[in-house]
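Meet my pick.
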Amino acid sequence: MSDRVIGAIGMALLLGACGVSKDEFAAAQKDAANYKKQFQDEQAKTAALQKQVTDLQGQNTQLTQSTTQLTQEKGELEAKSKQYEELAGSLKDQIQSGQVEISELKGKMTVKLKDKVVFGSGSAAINKQGRDALDAVAKAFQGLQGKTVIVAGYTDDVPVASKSHFKDNWDLSTERAVSVVRYLQTKGVDPKMLGAAGFSEYRPLAANSSPDGRSQNRRIEIALTAADYTPPVVDTPSAQAPTTPEPATQPSR
């Protein structure tokens, strides 16, 4: 297109040098101006098309990233559901009897066990029934990576017995949670992702005014979530052998 503009301008100059009329010269100038405008219009269209191509490439990149993220999230959800189904199948009898409840919401799976399923009254020692239930939990949690397992103990508002070695419900709820954590560790659950907490009587699910309400509040909850904390790795300095002091030199006489 630029060649046409240059040619038109050259033609106008040539015509002027050859004694071309004023009208013909003006017409040649007008043609040259039109060609120049057409050229500029074409340049603007080309720039606009290039911008559209760049924008589309950016949108395509974003869509690719979104698709990758959705695929990853779908895989994580399916993996969580698999763990849920495995655990629900292992604890089928306890779930049907109402001794154990399992829930899964927004990537967090929680296993809730009534205290009598795991412990005797006022005790933090795990009983046979509790070991059977925790064996199924440990089996489902083995081999997990990048997860956190928090075991939480809860009680009702009844004070511990005066002869109990537990000072109060804080002691009892915490010791029960720690007992479960230790048991899960012995069954192959990675201790790096385990944690224990005791909440005493202060997070009830129901009013403590009835036996049924107090029974709901006495519980152990095991929550499986994505790990949100990575402890720092500290280099331990190697032990150095003590240095033997050199004997003092005697001054010359």
